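Handout, section B. The chain below has 145 residues.
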Amino acid sequence: MYKLNVGYRVNTKASKTGVKWEYRGKLESYSEHIPSWREAIKMDCFVGVKVTDIETQEVVFFETKEDLTMLGKKLKFMREQKGMTQQELAEKSHVNLRSIQNYEQGFKDINGAKVTTVLALAEVLGCDVYDIINPREWSPEWGGE
């Protein structure tokens, strides 16, 4: 059993870190969290999501808004390097156009996508699946820092 917390930026003296973690409920599986916080991502004050094992208190999943933004930037850069529009990528990969738009804008977590979706995007973009799903790996050739 797991518990889901969503973090928000707060401007109070009571919060030393400037982040308030709000409890959002119990989960049977830590992958259940994705629908629970999609709307929170769109809020300017959203910081991240944390899923903790209730028994061990170990954090089993942690992702920040910056991680999602980075994944979106990578996907967009790789698409543009191939000279494709979002529509063309959608048609060639058979991935819904709106999903691609949401991935690129960081409103939807590509790590929550079906394996077949990520495989199809990687095949069309001519890259490794890991290039698409790893927010911590950013190469200068992708336009990153």
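Note. Residues 2-57 form one domain. Compare this with the example in section A.
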